[in-house]
Write a structure and sequence with these properties.
By secondary structure, this protein is of the alpha+beta class. It has two domains: 93 residues, no CATH class; 66 residues, no CATH class. It has three helices and five strands. A three-stranded antiparallel β-sheet has the order 1-2-5, with helices on one face. Strands 3-4 form a two-stranded antiparallel sheet. β1 and β2 form a beta hairpin. α1 runs antiparallel to α2. The chain is elongated, with a radius of gyration of 44 Å.
């Protein structure tokens, strides 16, 4: 019994150029890499069109068309991603400017609050020390107002000071450290006096 043998169809030669894919990743960096790869692939596929083999040229042409479509899609995706990135940059810069304005406003509010707190503390201490002039500490249900004694030199008339009590830099100013020690030792210095002060702290 004769056996009919059917010869297998010859396989088409594979193009030597790179294969192209229409899949695109979402990151801007990867889209940029894909754009470079597509540009290289299109150049290589265009060179393969010069081959004398019809099958190879047909396959290269098909892959070139796919690569061109992929490049167009890549350009659109890259433009959209770049546009979205620009929006994020503008948003961040706008947010930075807003926060800078808020920081300035909060700094001014902080100074105002601190000034009001100091004024209120001065009023509180004035009232309490008038009632109890010799007190150095006040206790309340939830707070304690304590004090410590210190000394500071107050210059009444800087022009009246002898040059020995002046420290010199680019301009002259009273040498308060030296004046303090001299006044504490009992020396009389025209234009300066030693004041005793008490500083207060809320605990």
């Amino acid at each position: 019994m004769a056996v009919l043998t059917v010869p297998a169809a010859p396989s088409l030669p594979q193009a030597a150029g790179p294969s192209c894919t229409l899949q695109r990743s979402g990151s801007l960096w990867q889209l940029g890499i894909e754009a470079q790869e597509l540009t290289t692939a299109i150049g290589q596929l265009a060179e393969q069109l010069e081959t004398d083999d019809d099958d190879s040229r047909a396959q290269a042409l098909a892959e070139l068309e796919a690569a061109l479509l992929a490049e167009e899609g890549n350009k659109q995706a890259l433009a959209a991603k770049a546009d979205a990135t620009c929006w994020v940059i503008e948003h961040l810069r706008g947010q930075a400017a807003y926060r800078q304005q808020q920081a300035k406003r909060l700094t001014e509010l902080s100074r105002s609050d601190a000034s009001r707190a100091d004024a209120l503390e001065d009023s509180l201490i004035l009232v309490l020390t008038r009632l109890q002039p010799t007190a150095t500490r006040f206790s309340f249900p939830n707070h304690e107002l304590s004090s410590r004694k210190s000394q500071a030199v107050e210059i009444d008339d800087e022009d009246a000071l002898d040059p020995q009590w002046l420290s010199f830099s680019t301009t002259s100013k009273p040498d308060k450290a030296a004046i303090r020690e001299a006044l504490k030792a009992g020396q009389l210095i025209p234009g300066a006096q030693l004041l005793s002060r008490r500083s207060w702290r809320i605990c």
